[in-house]
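name: query_chain
kind: protein
chains: 1
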Amino acid sequence: MNAGEIEKCIDGFGTDVYRFCLKLCLDKADAEDLYQQTFLKALETEWTLDWEKNPRALFFSFAYHLWKSDRRKQARRNRIAPCSNMDEEMEAVMQSEGDVEEGYLQKELVVQVRRIIQTLPEKFQVPLYLFYLSECSVEQIAAVIKKPPGTVKSRLFKGRSLIKKRLEEAGYGR
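structure:
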């Protein structure tokens, strides 16, 4: 890819890729690094971008695989010399138009759902993030994680079921 194509991609769906990176990393600095690495990797590839197919999914795939590779590297390093990350959750996105109590309860529910998603296995987290936050189709997600569409549907269903079960255990939905 050339710089012009990359620039067009950044303008077209760069914020979606950044949001996906932020959800994967849960840290703004790491997300920015992953975002830059994603577009750098695209720039380094010799591929020509096919605008008829979904180029957005290609960038989600780059970001996902770079993130996964980095997690493996961090896991190896932690086995050798453990360290801890002291950063807290940095994102409070939701704004409410209703009354204060309802807005607070809605924000609390969002925080609870995010915590639950973070505790889910990675195989459920990534499809949920791509489907709900990045609004990717099942086929696009399948291309990103290199699994069949049926597997993606199954993981979305199982992920939603686990979230629902844990919310009910926490006292929501009664």
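note: Residues 84-98 have pLDDT under 50 and may be disordered.
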